[in-house]
Design a protein that fits this description.
The chain is about 45% helix and about 10% strand. The chain is an alpha/beta fold. Strands 4-3-2-1-5-6 form a six-stranded mixed β-sheet, sandwiched between helices. Strands 7-8 form a two-stranded antiparallel sheet. A hairpin with a 4-residue loop joins strand 2 (about 200-205) and strand 3 (about 210-215). The longest helix has 25 residues, at about 310-330.
């Protein structure tokens, strides 16, 4: 291990106090030649500087700093770059800088990444334009809707629930596997069933789960489809395509109300759910009034930010399901999964997330943290707005990606390290029976549109 700056300063201090360099070298991490080198450096410059070991960076440090700033800004703008884009930009910059064509490769990128520990490879989640348009006004309205329900019902953590559906999906993208070196076109089997199974999950803010419900495709289901389900009180129904609809949701609301009467001593409930139109019908409010349920709907397209089940539970739940399906298909050497077996696997995954002790489902601390992170319980508008702010900045904290440039080539700034263009204005302008010049048309199109309240 190379000597640290403290080792060097301590050795030089001992020599200044009268010890001989040879004696210091025998009892310190520094060799005699190293001590002599730093003695000479201090005599000439008045300070000690430790140079970095290894290959000298090909790109000047100021240009590397600008490249890092561009990477941060691209992430903030919603277009994080891949490795090949960084290599192309660096090659372009250095070709202009040294005057000859340069082609950097993976070795340069590996050293570049090792020099900048705040950069790392991540899997980018694809986010639609609609899901990236959550507004502050919508979140504030949703927060005060929660406040109204909590104060009106005098809610505790056990009275605040979140309900959502997820799919029994096991077909994913390609994954890395362990194979013999040199193998080509390595493949693996996967489930070939085409039916869709929906799982309805609900949990309280104190981590207590509600028994899950399963929606199978079709108009009927087999009599013994729940015989192997390990979760007591689980429900099953059928819908034409296996998706939730308003009639099924009303039926689930009644089942939830009956469960609440048995397990929660008829306590009221604040139920947080997404803004999907398939949830509510004309009968929903009547059912909620009968069972003491207050509905709070999330802002449109905000489930990835403010829904505890999405934030804290479903990822682990679906990963457990996928692993169990793979193990079953491997053990039986088949590619089909009967519906009864699918419900059994989903029930086992549910029990893995909420283990039962003496027949009672345990509370899940991840769910408790999910409600807290989303600002639902305890109620916290700053946490909600902080999650929105981080999402708008694509998880770039502080002022990174907005820092002013320090030292760089003008060409690199203006021609190479560019950001995506700003969104264009409206294509059509309301004339309102008045005449417009060309400049007036463009000026009107550039004005932001007023959102409907």
């Amino acid at each position: 291990m190379p000597p640290t700056l403290d080792d060097i300063l301590a050795a030089l201090k001992r020599i200044e106090n009268g010890e001989k360099p040879a004696a210091v070298a025998r009892s310190s991490p520094l060799k005699s030649s190293t001590i002599y080198k730093y003695q000479k450096m201090k005599a000439q410059t008045g300070s000690i500087t430790i140079k970095k070991r290894g290959v000298k960076p090909f790109m000047p440090p100021d240009m590397e700093d600008d490249l890092v700033s561009w990477i941060e800004a691209m992430q903030r703008s919603g277009w994080p770059v891949e490795r090949y884009e960084v290599i192309l930009k660096a090659s372009h910059i250095m070709s202009y800088h040294v005057g000859v064509a340069c082609s950097l490769g993976r070795g340069w990128f590996a050293r570049f990444e090792s020099r900048h520990h705040d950069l790392s490879a991540r899997v980018a989640q694809k986010l639609s334009h609609a899901r990236n348009c959550v507004t502050k006004e919508g979140i504030v309205k949703y927060f005060y809707d929660l406040v109204k329900g909590c104060l009106g019902f005098k809610c505790t953590a056990g009275d605040v629930y979140n309900v959502d559906e997820t799919s029994f999906k096991t077909k994913g993208g390609s994954q890395k596997v362990i194979a013999i070196r040199g193998s080509k076109n390595v493949w693996r089997g996967e489930q070939s069933d085409s039916y869709h199974l929906t799982i309805v999950a609900a949990v309280a803010a104190d981590g207590t789960p509600v028994p899950p419900a399963f929606i199978l495709p079709g108009k009927s289901c087999a009599r013994g489809v729940l015989d192997d389900c390990p979760v007591p009180g689980a429900l099953v129904s059928a819908a034409p395509k296996g998706f939730m609809n308003s009639d099924l949701f009303d039926s689930w609301l009644e089942s939830f109300g009956e469960w609440k009467l048995r397990e929660r001593a008829a306590r009221p409930a604040l139920l947080v759910l997404d803004n999907c139109s398939s949830h509510l019908s004309e009968n929903s409010l009547t059912i909620c009034e009968a069972y003491g349920i207050y509905l709070a709907r999330l802002p449109p397209n905000a489930t990835h930010l403010l829904q505890p089940l999405d934030v804290a539970l479903f990822r682990t739940f679906k990963r457990t399901i996928a692993r169990a399906v793979t193990q079953r298909l491997q053990s039986l050497n088949v590619t089909t999964l009967p519906r009864q077996a699918a419900i059994h696997i989903a029930g086992e995954a549910f029990n893995a997330v909420f283990p039962a002790v003496n027949g009672v489902q345990e509370q899940n601390k991840s769910v408790v943290n999910g409600f807290s992170t989303c600002g639902i319980w305890p109620l916290s508008l700053p946490k909600m707005l902080r999650r929105l702010s981080m999402a708008k900045a694509n998880s770039v904290s502080d002022d990174r990606g907005n820092a002013p440039w320090l030292k760089t080539k003008t060409y690199a700034r203006d021609e190479v390290l560019t950001l995506p263009p700003k969104m264009k204005g409206r294509k059509r302008v309301q004339t309102e029976l008045e005449w417009h010049t060309r400049d007036q048309l463009h000026a009107s199109a550039a004005k932001p549109t007023k959102r409907k309240k």
